[in-house]
Amino acid sequence: MKLGFIGLGKMGGRMVQKLLSEDHEVVAWNRSEHELKNVETVKQLIKSLKAPRIVWSMVPSGEATEEILKEVSKFVSEGDIVIDGGNSNFKDTQRRFEDFQKRGIRFLGIGVSGGVIAATKGYPMMVGGDKSAYEHISPILDSLSKPHGGHEYFGIGGAGHFVKMIHNGMEYGIMQSLGEGFGVLEKSSYNLDLLKVAKLYQKGTLVSGFMLDRAVEVLSNPSILSSIEGKIAESGEAKWTIEEAKKEGVDVEIIEKSLEFRRKSQTDKKIQNSFSARMVAALRNAFGGHEVKKK
After folding, report:
1. Is the whole model's pTM more than 0.90, yes or no?
2. The sheet that has 2-6: what strands, in order across it?
């Protein structure tokens, strides 16, 4: 298929490369220069596509997404498909879906997970919005999900981004648990080989999985943990998950405490110097390429 792609950052650039390797044709634009950028403006990108045009935005959530989608909306027409693949708030996605729907433009909010390694492992994608658009772009999603990812349609409006938001809230708790557990192991008087522990944990234990595999990567290079501060950034999704949970009367104590720990890590030197915080920061870098603060 042929599509336009906006945003060639850590995720977007890798997604475009994967699509090209699967014989899709991609017209790409990025605000700054990039080797995959082949048009100079969003208008030029959209005008180079044939109806029904497919335009995928993969830029950070918030104002950047709002700005890009407003620009896209100037040049798309009835029947076209507009996709937001960033980590947008599901309420914003719902609003955008309704606004585009009034003009006959098919809008999708797709939560994209898997981090930087998904380019080879396959992207898991959580889709909400116009179902006919989802069916139309299925060949694109099939390619992005190869070999071990997947995609599912969850309903209209912001459904896909809602599912992704909860996923990211869970992610906070999982990383916090690993950081704390390995922090206790590291303090033990047994002088444990943490890499040996982590590799055994990989072998069918209940804590094995994607994030533990990233812990093995981190522990395989001890200089990573020794060279960083335990300042852990937040990206919004846990906060939104907690807000929605409170609205629905659901207790999410673990996610809430994990977010609180990240916020304290910005100023609390004791937390910043702890093995647990440095482990969580390193895990974020390992799976998503998120920036770490060097000592």
Report:
1. yes
2. 25-29, 2-6, 54-57, 81-84, 106-112, 124-129, 150-153
